Amino acid sequence: MSPESPEFTTVPVSLGERSYDILIGPGLIARAGEEIARRLKGARAAIVTDENVAGHYLDALMESLKSAGIAATPVIVAPGEKSKGFATLEIVTNAVLAARLERGDAVIALGGGVIGDLAGFVAGIVRRGMNFIQMPTSLLAQVDSSVGGKTGINTAYGKNLVGVFHQPQLVLADTDALDTLSPREFRAGYAEVAKYGLIDQPEFFAWLEANWKQVFAGGSERIDAIAISCRAKAAVVARDERENGDRALLNLGHTFGHALETATGYDSSRLVHGEAVSIGMALAHRFSAHMNLASPDDAARVEAHLKAVGLPVSISGIPGSLPPAEKLMDYIAQDKKVARGALTFILTQGIGQAFIAKDVPFSAVLGFLQGK
Amino acid sequence: MSPESPEFTTVPVSLGERSYDILIGPGLIARAGEEIARRLKGARAAIVTDENVAGHYLDALMESLKSAGIAATPVIVAPGEKSKGFATLEIVTNAVLAARLERGDAVIALGGGVIGDLAGFVAGIVRRGMNFIQMPTSLLAQVDSSVGGKTGINTAYGKNLVGVFHQPQLVLADTDALDTLSPREFRAGYAEVAKYGLIDQPEFFAWLEANWKQVFAGGSERIDAIAISCRAKAAVVARDERENGDRALLNLGHTFGHALETATGYDSSRLVHGEAVSIGMALAHRFSAHMNLASPDDAARVEAHLKAVGLPVSISGIPGSLPPAEKLMDYIAQDKKVARGALTFILTQGIGQAFIAKDVPFSAVLGFLQGK
Ligand SMILES: NC(=O)c1ccc[n+]([C@@H]2O[C@H](COP(=O)([O-])OP(=O)(O)OC[C@H]3O[C@@H](n4cnc5c(N)ncnc54)[C@H](O)[C@@H]3O)[C@@H](O)[C@H]2O)c1
Ligand SMILES: NC(=O)c1ccc[n+]([C@@H]2O[C@H](COP(=O)([O-])OP(=O)(O)OC[C@H]3O[C@@H](n4cnc5c(N)ncnc54)[C@H](O)[C@@H]3O)[C@@H](O)[C@H]2O)c1
Ligand SMILES: [Zn+2]
Ligand SMILES: [Zn+2]
């Protein structure tokens, strides 16, 4: 961990004066104080985390910040999606104000995507914008939610409908932290890793097919997979920071996936986000084949890989009863704007050849789902 | 009100791609539909307003939007500063989502500064940023709060500590609407008008000394005074959108003012913001004279004018008992960062010659207040 021989990989996110680095590697929690102090001189901090993550890593982070001279106040919330709501937003906001932090001080998110989205939103609104550090501890957060500046909470009207774009000053992805993540959560995050291959990197997908066991086991393949994922997301974000255009490609598998999450009432015992995305990606590939846009062989290959790592690939794989195709279409229509009976969907011409398909007929999607 | 002969004045706010116009004049509520439809084609809207303002102007605005083909949902909150908090933020946010508005639709703030700050914050966070239209109906909102993109709410830790910068697409200041404003609220807003003269426009201050009665009565002098104020604020905002530098000049009178608002517990029956600013400006000029920075004659002139329009100019003018000077200094210290016993203050070298004074000794301010 000496500064001379950092074992970590740096992925830059290029956003003009809002540019920042993602550091990926082992031991970064212990190194956090040094990395933060170097970038935000004299800053104090609030650490937002959840009970699970606090149990594993809060002491180590407090220690590291203390050695670097950073006074920090921990703010611990309950784990789970319920903490991404107005009630917890107000509590965390008040805790940051109670610590008398100023704009130049930092909110540190130590946890999964729930913590990153919540803490980032708080950092975006306290004093109209404070410094923000992401320390993602779930695989999903390391490869997806901690990069790009989208923050927010859920409401009764849907997920992530309220928030701000607020870029962090630094992302520290400690890959050792993933060792305490449950296998199910690791797999769920892996669905998003595979997604980057399926969007536009067929070689990366092929590499994952060959190396996924090492990625799950840890070591340099894991770091590589996370770095490639972050690079892919960073490139999209740099092109389209506020999601007006091709950032939509990142939604591969997500239209079907969100409908399934709604259909299961966001009950994580039945389905977590990455699992929904896995099924959604399998469906998007099968639907693309069904529409004669891609070969059925590609759909089969995608399914085979997701299955191999233990992810679900079909609606029937979800425990409990599910609504009929018509109802799923209602959820899809709620999620997306339906213009004159047509939908915008991320479809594909093959592995690593995803594209934004406008005007996908509603009836074609319904027919496909009815055929399942 | 025909488009050929607009009776209104246009003040542009130059912020690159976030630039917008402020239209100032009579009849703009009736004209709102047309002006909004022209700028935001196909948009729908939510109108956020308070009970007082709704009683006077909501029907007229709904009518105008309807004629222009803009479907609008009203969201009415209680009048007063209490509506600028998390509870109402959540209610209004949910109402906007319930209306199924998208990013390209608009939140319209119809009301005073409370409504503008609240609705602007909602517009800034729903779907991470929707279109926003300011329709300020108080003098304070027309000359100050509706311009510049600062939005937010209060918390137990202080006023305006939580919010976002979110610029409107258009500001429509209907000067007729001021006719139903209470004389006390009009006077309070006038304190901010006078402030622009005192900051850096001595001729404007002199013009106000000569023409204030016409400004209060309405007509072209009122429009002129509002336009000059908006131009002044727009220029400062264009130089310093995110308040990192000389936007601080706009705080003339506000350091003392905020301390007095805190001391009176934000009880508007005792003191409203503009009155606090009036006393604060008088104190800032007297303190500048006390520090031999400006002539006592200038302080006397400022006081005489504020008194003439009916504004309070001294702490003793506030009804009820007030804490001693030492306690007021505590409030000032809470509001401002106190670095090594020194404060940053807006002081002056004379009428229209305000400047940012760093390192004002705490003890000098205390001594001055004790001498009151
Ligand atoms: N902002 C974005 O761009 C973006 C992108 C994708 C997803 N998201 C959001 O991310 C959230 C999902 O993220 P998530 O899957 O990380 O959920 P999460 O934060 O709920 O974490 C999942 C579970 O793992 C636990 N955990 C996290 N790290 C751990 C560790 N190292 N050891 C042991 N336990 C650990 C958590 O306590 C939690 O119980 C969703 O709310 C989603 O909307 C946001
Ligand atoms: N965002 C900024 O840059 C900024 C700048 C200055 C002040 N502010 C904020 O503005 C707020 C004060 O604004 P305000 O003085 O307009 O307060 P306000 O919105 O409470 O309005 C004052 C009163 O006048 C009533 N009212 C408004 N227009 C009326 C009309 N045309 N006819 C009859 N009644 C009318 C309101 O119902 C209210 O009772 C404070 O919260 C302050 O923090 C913000
Ligand atoms: Zn996802
Ligand atoms: Zn003011």
TrEMBL record, chains A, B:
Keyword line: Amino-acid biosynthesis, Aromatic amino acid biosynthesis, Cobalt, Cytoplasm, Lyase, Metal-binding, NAD, Nucleotide-binding, Zinc
Annotated 3-dehydroquinate synthase C-terminal domain residues: 189-338
Required cofactor(s): Co(2+); Zn(2+); NAD(+)
Alphabetized CDD domains for the sequence: DHQS
Residues binding NAD(+), per UniProt: 113-117, 137-138, 150, 159
EC number: 4.2.3.4
Compartments (UniProt record): Cytoplasm
Pathway stated in the Swiss-Prot or TrEMBL entry: Metabolic intermediate biosynthesis; chorismate biosynthesis; chorismate from D-erythrose 4-phosphate and phosphoenolpyruvate: step 2/7
Domain 3-dehydroquinate synthase N-terminal: 75-187
HAMAP family on file: DHQ_synthase (MF_00110)
Stated name of the protein: 3-dehydroquinate synthase
Species the sequence originates in: Phyllobacterium leguminum
Lineage: Bacteria, Pseudomonadati, Pseudomonadota, Alphaproteobacteria, Hyphomicrobiales
Gene: aroB
